[in-house]
Fold:
Amino acid sequence: MSDETEKLKEAAEEAKKNLGSPLITDQKTSSSLWFDQRELNVRYMISVERIKKFYDGLLEGKVFATRCTKCGVVYFPPQSYCSSCRSDSMEWLELAGTGELITYTVINVKPQSFSHYPDYAVGIAKMPQGVNVLAWIDSDIKSLKVGMKVKLEVKKREPENYLTYWIKPE
Amino acid sequence: MRKVGIIGASYTKFGERFDASMQELAWEAFKDAINEANIEPAQIEYSVVSNMGGWSSESLPAVIVSEALGINPRGSVRVEAACASGSSAVKLAHDVVASGQAEVVLAIGVEKMRESPSRTVVEYIGRAGNFMWEFENFGLTFPGYYALYATAYMSKFGAKEEDLCEVAVKNHYYASFNEKAQYRNKISVEKCMYSPYVAWPLKLYDCSPITDGASAVILASEDFIKSHGQEAVWISGTGYATGTANLSKRDDFTGLDAARKAAQQAYVKASIDPERPASQLDLAEVHDCFTIAEIMAYEDLGFAKKGEGIKLIKEKQTYKGGVIPVNLDGGLKAKGHPIGATGESMIAELYHQLLGKVKGERQAEIRNGKALAHNVGGTGHYAYVTILSLDKGERS
Structure:
């Protein structure tokens, strides 16, 4: 729960004592608000069975895309089927080599679930296999330039402690 | 297909509407629209409710709205096309009437974003793209997605942050005359430039706010309008397209492909010359969720050549008196952006503009009797372009 919500919760607890109901007051408009007494925490379980090799690749330090063995279309994020020619015959292709940073930003105002990080740079790299990869950029923010040469690097994301991929200037 | 006209439209005061529930906001917009249309609620045969939700408590906004407006047991459906939900609702409402299934249909958008704390809203909108590959691991935000476009645009065409701020200055200027706008303060380029970064190179004043609001548009068939004797504004063309969920799957970050495709379709349907649309339109509402989005819209709609959108704003060509006035209501930037209600509010604004009902500093000069609404969902994930006309045109 954020500090903001924690404060509102305290105010609602106080109101329940004094007013009998969890009513809080918006400071700017003096409007009465009911502070929801039911909390919903959501965490999804997302199916990755058909692209599990991608995660095996990360363990070997590789970032994999998929390629259709029939028509040759390359997919990143990896796709288990070819929506171009309707084939299910896919092979794995490592996104190795030098790519180009085509754009980037720095996230200053973060989502709640990323609020424990300092400002982070996110970029899109065009890889030689013909697909783009969006990821955090592992570099001094001030040194970034559109068009610079980059590669992909796999390492653990802290503090969550799981493997993911970064864009890294060469 | 039958011709379809708008006979009433309205939007509520936009802003932090802690004073009103979702039901009360919907009622506020509906009451004005139905009074203007001069019909009874029982004459509405179907409704389309646009709402994005997540941040608000109600899971079934269409039934909440139907009950609140007293229009049960007419059928309804909730639609979502992210920030373009409102235009998608108007399109569906149009199609129900055009196909002869109903004479009068309501499109109504409502959004209560401030039922959640701002960080939660930032999180929800950040998830509006591809959750697994762009949000889960990399924490993109909505300003972040558009910032990727801003960086690419600035790098390719030599635009500066100051140039983007010119859009905010214009839209705050017109919002200052709009009593329904969330922000009615005029700002300067300096004020914009000194505002904190939200997602570099975009700053606070480059961004539309978190907004509560509702907006209603009532559509009717040509036969109904004729017998009812109501003045109407006609829908002369709607274009629509989608873009990839993953931004990484796109080739170009200097414009929105979906918006270009939607515009081309709409121009063909409304018999507007795609080479010089600005000369045939009296004004436009464009989707300025961020300043860069308005610049790209000028180019995607063909108001400016590629790379010359910045020139258009610097020369004040999108103010009244210029090549084409844009966002005379203050735009998403300053009027506010209640996601699911934004599209209907653009169309409500143009309806009143074309009928000359806006009055004062914000009223555009109506010469051609045609106006355009460009409503983008997500970061070019959805695009709707709707062209309105005082002229009914030939039966198509």
